[in-house]
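pls design
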């Protein structure tokens, strides 16, 4: 997940402000995701982010690739990023924009990490527990880390609940070492 740099945060906040003002938050969010997907192609990135390629040519490429996939304001944001040599910030802009959308709607992002993939029923139970704890709607992302051995780790913002076997073993080891 891209970390929002100050640059990405500024662009995302400006885009969010425009989208909120115009009532096009969902459209902007979809457009930014589409732009990030298109610009993820290494060949495209090489052209649109290269100062060696004339500006008119870079903007033409962006227009051709994004014209029917995104609204004019979102395409303009991509053009601005290209002009300023900041295309590498686009994934972080998109990520931060999504966080702003969630925040504005009272949705909390949470990640559950387990040793093996969780079933839909298990994910629903985790989501219900996190919603009860946070008293908010939750957008849950699932990850798998076999090193956990068993159990789960749930991250909500900067809080972490470690109910993994690995975590329990580490805590037990610390208690044994402290008692020696």
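designed seq:
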């Amino acid at each position: 997940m891209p970390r929002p740099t100050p640059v990405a945060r500024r662009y995302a906040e400006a885009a969010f402000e425009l989208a909120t003002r115009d009532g096009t938050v969902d459209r902007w969010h979809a457009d930014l995701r589409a732009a990030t997907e298109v610009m993820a192609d290494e060949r495209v990135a090489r052209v649109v982010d290269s100062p060696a390629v004339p500006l008119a040519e870079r903007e033409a490429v962006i227009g051709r690739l994004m014209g029917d996939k995104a609204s004019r304001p979102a395409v303009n944001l991509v053009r601005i990023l290209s002009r300023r040599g900041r295309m590498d910030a686009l994934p972080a802009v998109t990520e931060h924009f999504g966080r702003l959308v969630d925040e504005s709607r009272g949705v909390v992002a949470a990640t559950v990490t387990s040793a093996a993939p969780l079933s839909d029923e298990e994910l629903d139970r985790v989501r219900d527990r996190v919603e009860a704890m946070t008293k908010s709607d939750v957008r849950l992302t699932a990850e798998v880390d076999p090193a956990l051995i068993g159990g789960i780790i749930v991250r909500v913002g900067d809080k972490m609940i470690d109910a993994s076997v690995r975590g329990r073993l580490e805590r037990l080891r610390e208690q044994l070492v402290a008692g020696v």
